[in-house]
Amino acid sequence: MSPRRRTATRVQVARRRAEAVQLRVAGATWEEIAARLGYASRGAACTDVTRALAEAQAELNLAVSEWRQLHLARLEAAHRVAAEVMARDHVHVSHGRIVREGVPAIDDQGQAVIREGHGSPVLDDGPKLAAIDRVVKVSESVRKLLGHDAQTKLDASVSGDLAPMTFNINLDGAEQVHGQGG
């Protein structure tokens, strides 16, 4: 079979599969799909639709995987930048000037004084603390993206003078109550 013929056949198969899926979604039976689209049997129609759906699911899984990898790479880049900010020292700036430690000295009258702005720069921990917060947020996003944050649930039953009642308390804050109290 020539390459053109194979391509034409593939296109016809793809169109028929797409139409078969549309018919099935619309509620058509396997017999109706087979008769309308020329399948040899209802089983052949079912097999073709199943294959089409499996191929679509595989394509979707691949797209989701690629999306997840892209966002994971972005989060890793954000983590690297935050880690670089954490590793650097940052000077404290006030009103456009670097704040410096004062230097002790004796003034003209023999009094002990602090000469402001003559010592070493005062370090500012704010940028490092902000970077730590960002690293925590990025880590949370990575865990969610990879599905590492499984929901935790606590089940408890209460009985006594009241009608038995069961509470399902999810640690994410949602609460469900089953049964009726007295």
Describe the protein.
This protein is α+β, with helices and mostly antiparallel strands and about 180 residues long. The protein has two domains: about 5-90 and about 125-145, no CATH class; about 150-180, no CATH class. Helix content is about 55%, strand content about 15%. It contains four helices and seven strands. The chain has helices spanning about 5-25, 30-35, 40-85, 125-145; strands at about 95, 95-100, 105, 110-115, 155-160, 165-170, 175-180. The protein has a three-stranded antiparallel sheet with strand order 5-6-7, with no helix packed on it. Helix 1 (about 5-25) runs antiparallel to helix 2, helix 2 (about 30-35) crosses helix 3 (about 40-85) and helix 3 (about 40-85) packs antiparallel against helix 4 (about 125-145). The protein starts with a helix and ends with a strand. About 5% of the residues are buried. The mean pLDDT is about 85.
- Overall geometry: elongated
Task: Determine the strand fraction and express it as a percent band.
Answer: 15-25%
SS elements, strand count: 7
Poorly predicted residue ranges: none
Q: Give the averaged pLDDT, no decimals.
A: 84
Which sequence of SSEs, written as H and E, runs from N to C?
HHHEEEEHEEE
Number of discrete helical segments = 4
- Strands across the major sheet, in which order? 5-6-7
The total tally of domains equals 2
Distance between the termini: 78 Å
Largest sheet: 3 strands, antiparallel
State the secondary-structure class: alpha+beta
The residue fraction in helices comes out at 40-55%
Radius of gyration: 34 Å
